[in-house]
Amino acid sequence: MGTNTTTRDEILGRLRDASRGELPKRPALPPLVELSWSREHLIEKFIENLVEQTAVVHRCKDYVTAADTLTEIATLHRLHKVLASTDGIIETLNLRAWAEKAGVNLFFARDFSDRDSYKDFVFDGAEAGITGVDYAIAESGTLCIVHDKNQPRLVSLAPITHIAVVPVERIYPVYEQVIENVFGKDRPPHSHVTFITGPSMTADIQGVPFKGMHGPKRLIVILVG
Amino acid sequence: MKVKTEQFTHVAEQELKNVRTRALLDYISSIIDARREEAMSSFSDPAAALAYGRAIRAEAIMRMPELLEEFEKKAAAHGAVVLWARDSKEANDIVLRLAKERGIRYVTKGKSMVTEEIGLNDVLKANGIEVFEADLGEFIAQLLERPPFHIVGPAINIPVDEICKIFLERGIMREPTTDPVALGAAARAFLRDKFHHLQMGITGVNMAVAETGTIINVENEGNIRFAKSSPRTQVSLMTLEKVVPTMNDAMHLLRLLCRNCTAQKISAYVSMDSGPKKADEIDGPEELFIIVIDNGRSRFYGDIQAREALRCIRCGACMYGCPVYMKIGGYPYGWAYSGPMGQVLNPLLLGLDKTQDLYRACTLCGKCKEICPSGIDHPKMFLSYRAKDVEGDEIYKGKRRSWKESAAVELLTWGIRRAWRWNLGAKATRPAINRYADDGKLKNIKGTFEGWFRSRDFPSMAERTFHERMDGRDSSETNHCRSEEEPTGKQCK
């Protein structure tokens, strides 16, 4: 499809021809008090904000206990078939070994021959999606996932339960630092970046809030460290 | 969607009688200020945060042409295809062509006010392409063929029994229920299948970042994330004013948007696209089209006051703040945009002639201006629309008043400048005017001023003016009051 340059030039031309007016001076950027929080306070606030959105947060001292916690979660929610991403955190967790021990059928996106069979499984087969996260943000209890071949989009979206593994050192105070890391100068562009703060929700019927509208009904976060 | 802005008074009268809507709005009214203020108080300095957000919007609008160019360049460099549309027809034609070229049978749509503005659903449907609104509120509004009641909660006013009825009729569920959660689950199950086999997803855009060529969507349900993850083709529509300078600006506006919109620090999901998926990714769109729609905006961009309307970030706070909206709800406004933001935007997009009641249905209380995170001065704009309308402004399609009304106002303006003219005029016109008096009030004067009395009345003219009463005062009276001038029979003490 060709670009429609005439239309574009006509619209932009009209905008450019308009008198611009004087550029208003920006006031000072409001202070971001979160930047002065101690590490432990950052973790506390991150947990507090996430729990407020009904996420369940488990804090584990290392990846070994994180795997044990994952087993408990799998037992509690009777998980038999799960889909996981293959990002660095999930690799560190050694999920293959965990799944064998816990008796869970574990799948990765690469186990599927094509997009359609992967989609069939993520929509109809997987009982939970397990992912690492690239960043976490204390100011609002937000998980940030930078999607790529190891971090497919639907794993944290289509299954009814999303389990996210978050090393504490990935928690940052505010969005701006995460944005600098993801979108900063000389960084290769990422096609898709997601902020997740709690399970999918709505209040569209008479203002009654409930979770699990289209995406996960449960968000479980395993904090490591 | 059909423009029904000219039926404002009629629909408002009907809606005022809707007991359920009134009860809901009264309830929201009782809690909404406290919720928004609590959310804003999570800023360390709420006033500074508000001022900074307004400054970003002011700058974004002023720098719009250069920011749009930068956005286009960066987005294209990431592999997105940026297409421009002068008006609704061009925008709809582009989407239709993209769908037809790909043999698309149905699309899902995230909640997007611009697609309501351009009437995309009707065009796709007329051409055999099914559209499923995927935001729960829009989904319900679409089934009931209603316009959005509120830009954030499009069907928040619909009673559960009515939702149950339409869900049963359309086979969305089999067993009746009035539990909102169960109704939501039925919609989830129905739309999940659509997401699963989706080939083309349509979304709006909350912000388009010039610095990085990124589009950002803010939502709670996840339907937009599905539209960006499951299909091979993603089409995202935006109007000119969605562009913001930098990612950091977008982050600050995100904080303000969510706090003012739903009293959240942040919504459940924020998704940001810089181009389509990479070749080695298993999901996400293989092609990303971004359609930039003008639809009349560049025409009034040259008017520095009118362009202020473009600052709006669609948080919807002004609606729940408006004493008029909170009595009549969103339907009387008759189009995609309702409440104060609609009253500001619709006259510019549709013309002052077609939106007569919109910019007049305002008490000028200023609440919308006070809370607006974008810094729009709504009351000032309404006054300017009223003036432009009376003057018959050609660009904005002002209606102009009849020559009789204009002449009467001219005469009045001339008359009130000198006391003798006023006194003479008052004496001469009194009998003619008081012919219409009813119980001491003028409720209608046939002819010239008819419209004026639709929502107002005026005391009838006194038989004697104040000066006449003062001059003719009986000096023997000490109490400054004469009983025979008290028609109600009130006695002086």
Structure description:
The complex is a heterodimer of chains A (225) and B (493). Chain A has 225 residues and is of the alpha/beta class. Chain A has one domain: Rossmann fold (3-Layer(aba) Sandwich). Helix content of chain A is 33%, strand content 23%. Chain A has helices at 5-17, 39-52, 63-76, 88-93, 95-102, 115-124, 175-183, and strands at residues 56-60, 81-84, 105-108, 128-132, 135-137, 142-147, 161-167, 171-172, 192-196, 201-202, 210-211, 218-224. In chain A, the strands form 3 sheets. In chain A, strands 1-12-7-4-2-3 form a 6-stranded parallel sheet, sandwiched between helices. In chain A, a hairpin with a 7-residue loop joins strand 10 (201-202) and strand 11 (210-211). The longest helix of chain A has 14 residues, at 39-52. Chain A starts with a helix and ends with a strand. The relative contact order of chain A is 0.17. In chain B, strand 11 (437-438) and strand 12 form a beta hairpin. Chain B has helices spanning 8-16, 19-40, 46-62, 64-77, 88-101, 113-118, 120-126, 136-143, 160-169, 180-196, 223-229, 247-262, 297-301, 317-321, 325-328, 339-350, 367-371, 378-391, 403-415, 419-434, 466-471, and strands spanning 81-85, 106-109, 130-133, 200-203, 207-209, 214-219, 233-239, 243-244, 269-273, 287-293, 437-438, 441-442, 458-459. In chain B, helix 3 packs across helix 12 (247-262). In chain B, 47% of the residues are buried. Chain B is elongated, with a radius of gyration of 27 Å. Chain B has 3 domains: 1-41 and 308-400, Fumarate Reductase Iron-sulfur Protein, Chain B, domain 2 (Orthogonal Bundle), CATH 1.10.1060; 62-295, 3-Layer(aba) Sandwich (Rossmann fold), CATH 3.40.50.10420; 403-485, no CATH class. By secondary structure, chain B is an alpha/beta fold. Chains A and B meet through helix 1, helix 6, helix 7, strand 9 and strand 10 of A and helix 3, helix 4, strand 1, helix 5 and helix 8 of B. Strand 9 (192-196) of chain A pairs antiparallel with strand 9 (269-273) of chain B. Chain B: Residues 467-493 are annotated as: Disordered. Chain B: GO terms for molecular function: 4 iron, 4 sulfur cluster binding; metal ion binding.
